[in-house]
DNA sequence: CTAAAGCTTAGAGTTCGCTTTAAGGCAAGC
DNA sequence: GCTTGCCTTAAAGCGAACTCTAAGCTTTAG
């Protein structure tokens, strides 16, 4: 019954230190301890860790996560705040995904360029190739960001 | 002529302080200065800043970006390293996008759950609803991560 | 029975990426 | 001429999220 801190560390990839740190910061207020003072993590505690990871990945700071947990403990009077938080996080993550797709376009172009450059032994020669210029235009034709107003950096 | 540090700051959203800091860290080794010692940024410098932003967004640390710039300055003898770097970054960003899609699923579920909870005035009542349980199953039927092995945290 | 592994606490230290401070030079507008 | 604002440098400070240290207790394997 219950997982030791070491087991939870192994399962989550966090260290035991980090788990205690989270607890200190108010992120895991439900963890119980046995008679000799050792932590015993329940399945619910693991679920909370999973939620913490989700909120962290969505860009929330630990103290904001602690606040969410505070709301949860307050009960149904804080439902609106929690709804707003999830709406906001979803919007933020959707933005981030869009940003990463642009980053991916740029990296794809660079990868193709350098693959050609390695083949030719020369970056300049690769940049001269019409295929490369065509690829660049295909990926960056929408001039919606500052990046495209300037030349290649290399 | 070229851009002053203030103009570049306004354009990029970075502060003048940050631009000088980047230079100190070896990220902008091409910026020239006028007779009175002030920085004059060229179009190429702006392009480098755009590349720096891209690599930063791909998860690279500043000192790793500085190393990439070092490779660029060394010339065609470092083409392979640079190609490998872009391949690696693309893989990392693709992973990150996949991770964020999972995060998005979870946030979508939570948002729907809390929307219902706000309507009903009770989280427990919302969790009881068959629609919510159906949505949860729809989003999380693939048991490929630890998250799904445990119950809801709330 | 003893040693090693793993747990406890409080608190100091580390890394990253800025961010601010201190002390001062130059250039344009009133 | 003087103030305002932007520029220069070197260096100290900061917030986030760990990460490690110290000192000591408990449990388990040999």
How many independent structural domains of chain A? 2
- N-to-C CA distance of chain A: 60 Å
Tally of extended strands of chain A? 2
Fraction in beta strands of chain A: under 5%
Helical amount among residues of chain A, as a percent range? Answer: 55-70%
- Biggest sheet statistics of chain A: 2 strands, antiparallel
* Averaged pLDDT of chain A: 89
CATH topology of the largest domain in chain A: Multidrug-efflux Transporter Regulator, Chain: A, Domain 2
Helix-strand pattern of chain A, N to C?
HHEEHHHHH
Give a written overview of the molecule.
The structure is a homodimer of 154-residue chains. Chain A is mainly alpha-helical. The first copy, chain A, folds into two domains: 5-74, Multidrug-efflux Transporter Regulator, Chain: A, Domain 2 (Orthogonal Bundle), CATH 1.10.1660; 80-149, no CATH class. Chain A has helices at residues 5-12, 16-24, 43-57, 62-74, 79-120, 123-128, 130-139, and strands at residues 32-33, 39-40. Chain A has a two-stranded antiparallel sheet. In chain A, a hairpin with a 5-residue loop joins strand 1 (32-33) and strand 2 (39-40). In chain A, helix 5 (79-120) runs antiparallel to helix 7. Chain A binds a DNA duplex (30 and 30 nucleotides) through helix 2.
């Amino acid at each position: 019954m219950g997982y030791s801190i070491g087991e939870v560390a192994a399962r989550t990839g966090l260290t035991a230190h980090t788990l205690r740190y989270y607890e200190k910061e108010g992120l895991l207020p439900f963890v119980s301890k046995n008679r000799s003072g050792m932590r015993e993590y329940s399945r619910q505690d693991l679920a909370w860790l999973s939620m913490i990871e989700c909120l962290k990945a969505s860009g929330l700071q630990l103290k904001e996560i602690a606040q969410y947990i505070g709301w949860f403990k307050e009960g149904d009077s804080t439902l609106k705040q929690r709804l707003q938080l999830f709406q906001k996080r979803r919007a933020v993550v959707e933005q981030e995904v869009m940003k990463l797709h642009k980053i991916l376009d740029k990296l794809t172009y660079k990868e193709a360029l350098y693959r050609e450059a390695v083949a030719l032994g020369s970056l300049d020669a690769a940049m001269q190739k019409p295929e490369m210029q065509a690829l660049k235009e295909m990926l960056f034709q929408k001039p919606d960001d500052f990046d495209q107003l300037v030349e290649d950096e290399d």
